[in-house]
């Protein structure tokens, strides 16, 4: 008799990379983190975006403001480290993640206010999944998804 604790597997993630590599079971990711572009601003070359001057515009930059921040569970360390999916295109998350918002660089991206943004989830839309985010943060998918509010 084999017994399993389903836990994180209910969301479509393996409890560990070892289990993923040895498993004959294919899991499908069923969780995603999405938001919308609430504002688009054109920022001049030579400006800083966000807290602590962590992103510098070395060219005129089209910036999308997203209605999501660390109060919602988006880890601050992801600023300047991931790309998000917008209309099946990848856009970099720029600057520090703020409490209630974060920013994406929209140069060469077809996007408008109100468009959906996938921070992780649907691989068919080119988005990261929570396991990839966890690996980037040197943690586990449990932590990535349990911080969401």
User: Which runs of at least 5 residues are low in confidence (pLDDT < 50)?
Assistant: none
Percent of sequence in beta strands:
25-35%
In the CATH hierarchy, what is the class?
Answer: Mainly Beta
How are the strands ordered across the major sheet? 1-4-7-6-5-8
CATH topology: Lyase, Ornithine Decarboxylase, Chain A, domain 1
Number of helices: 3
Number of strands: 8
Shape: elongated
Number of domains: 1
End-to-end C-alpha gap? 37 Å
Please provide the ordered H/E string of secondary-structure elements. Answer: HEEEEEEEEHH
Output the CATH homologous superfamily.
Lyase, Ornithine Decarboxylase, Chain A, domain 1
Provide the CATH architecture.
Beta Barrel
Domain Alanine racemase C-terminal: 30-149
Cofactor: pyridoxal 5'-phosphate
GO molecular function, one term: pyridoxal phosphate binding
Keywords: Isomerase, Pyridoxal phosphate
Your description of this structure?
The chain is of the alpha+beta class and 149 residues long. It has a single domain, classed as Lyase, Ornithine Decarboxylase, Chain A, domain 1. The chain contains three helices and eight strands; from the N terminus they run αββββββββαα. The chain has a six-stranded antiparallel barrel with strand order 1-4-7-6-5-8. The chain is elongated and about 60 Å long. Keywords: Isomerase, Pyridoxal phosphate. InterPro entries: Ala_racemase, Ala_racemase/Decarboxylase_C, Ala_racemase_C, PLP-binding_barrel. One of its GO terms (cellular component) is cytosol. GO terms for molecular function: alanine racemase activity; pyridoxal phosphate binding.
């Amino acid at each position: 008799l084999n017994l399993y604790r389903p836990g994180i597997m209910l969301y479509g993630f393996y409890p560990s990379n070892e289990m993923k590599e040895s498993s004959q079971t294919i899991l499908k990711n069923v969780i995603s983190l999405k938001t919308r572009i609430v504002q688009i601003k054109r920022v001049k070359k030579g400006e800083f975006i966000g807290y602590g001057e962590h992103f510098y515009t070395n060219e005129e930059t089209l910036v999308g403001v997203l209605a999501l921040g660390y109060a919602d569970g988006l880890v601050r360390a992801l600023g300047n480290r991931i790309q998000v999916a917008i209309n099946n295109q990848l856009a970099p998350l720029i600057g520090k993640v703020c409490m209630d918002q974060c920013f994406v660089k929209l140069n060469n991206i077809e996007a408008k206010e109100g468009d959906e943004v996938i921070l992780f989830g649907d691989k068919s839309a080119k988005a990261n999944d929570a396991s990839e985010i966890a690996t980037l943060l040197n943690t586990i998918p449990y932590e990535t998804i349990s911080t969401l509010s």
